[in-house]
Amino acid sequence: MGAVAFAKAYKPEYLGFGIEINALHETNPADYASFKVFFAKVVKVVKQVSLDTKVFTVFQLERLRGLRGGLFGGKNDPTINDWVLLGDFPDADLLAFTTYPCIVYNYPPTSPPTITQQRSHNTPPNPSPILRLGGSGSASLGGRVAPRSKLDS
Predict the structure, then answer these.
(1) pLDDT mean values, one per 10 residues, the chain (153 residues)
(2) Residue by residue, what is the 3-state secondary structure of the chain?
(3) I need a labelling partner for 107 at 20 to 30 A (CA). Which of 23, 34, 36, 146 fits?
(4) pTM of the prediction?
């Protein structure tokens, strides 16, 4: 297994597997189920060779929150969210997120709840790093460039 050799050789502080995996859940539930099994196995073997390595997976925040409008082309409905998926990875040391507020919000965005506020009360309070954060000043993407004074405050 390549991950084991890498972890053994480099002892990384963090090692991630899977990116925006909730999209995989939406498009191919069978592959998502296989990934859950794979992830649990890879955490176990990585820890055998690099105990201090923090192993994580990544979710796409807007879709996780049920926000499928804007550039996604669907409808924003926070009542149809996927927070329960976070519980599929109990072996993860942390769960990470990508977020692109410009996909579903205009600038300035409405004030969406923070990740911590949105997390299921059944999910352990792991750290929640943001691995990728994007925004757009393009009017064609629903944004506008903020005055410099707004960016600096």
Answers:
(1) 90 95 96 98 97 94 85 83 94 89 62 52 52 53 45 38
(2) CHHHHHHHHHCCCEEECCCCHHHHHHHCHHHHHHHHHHHHHHHHHHHHHCCCCEEEEEEEHHHHCCECCHHHCCCECCCCCCHHHHHHCCCCCEEEEEECHHHCCCCCCCCCCCHHHHCCCCCCCCCCCEEEECCCCCHHHCCCCCCHHHHHC
(3) 23
(4) 0.74
